Amino acid sequence: MTNTSRTRTGDQLRDDLLAAATDLLSQRLAVTPPSLRETARACGVSATAVYRHFPSQQALLIAVASQSLTALTTAIDDAGASESTDDRATALRTTASAYVTWAVANPGAYQLLFEGRDLLENPATVESGIDRLQSRLDALLVGLPAGDRDERLQADLLWIALHGLVVTRIRKTRQQWERSVVADATAIVDTFIS
Length: 194
Hints:
With 194 residues, this protein is an all-alpha fold. It contains ten helices and no strands. The protein has helices spanning 4-7, 10-26, 36-43, 47-51, 57-78, 88-105, 107-115, 124-141, 151-171, 181-193. Helix 6 (88-105) runs antiparallel to helix 10 (181-193) and helix 8 (124-141) crosses helix 9. The longest helix has 22 residues, at 57-78. The chain is elongated, with a radius of gyration of 19 Å.
């Protein structure tokens, strides 16, 4: 049997360690960061192999958070959601749908990003990325019918509602949902633009 840690390149091992840490996070209901040893074991390598890529658990968590934020942003971009579209309501629905779909499919990464930032010693990069996502929702809401409602308040409430939807879906895994998470996200968006 070949020792897989010797056949992997540095980048392959780093990617495998990130995937293992993300998977370990997804197996938990609360954000409990995996140790470096636990990550190494899940990856089938020695604990010392991890230290070549991540000098600390913090470094590993920051890398997982950064990679997860990029994946979430990419999922939204790939869904075709854009502020430049003429139909802002459709773009807002698309953005919300991509956001909740990615979040439910990646519960550990989502929880690290949105509920576990206190685990990160320096969450500034993650926070700036999340601020950009929220600004994207804000930009899509501008100009949509809001009646007498304050657009800033509407944007905050939409963000809270989508986050609540995701957290409920992640935590209530045995619940039989009547509608898909995308249908619920669309309904939430529609209440804000009608």
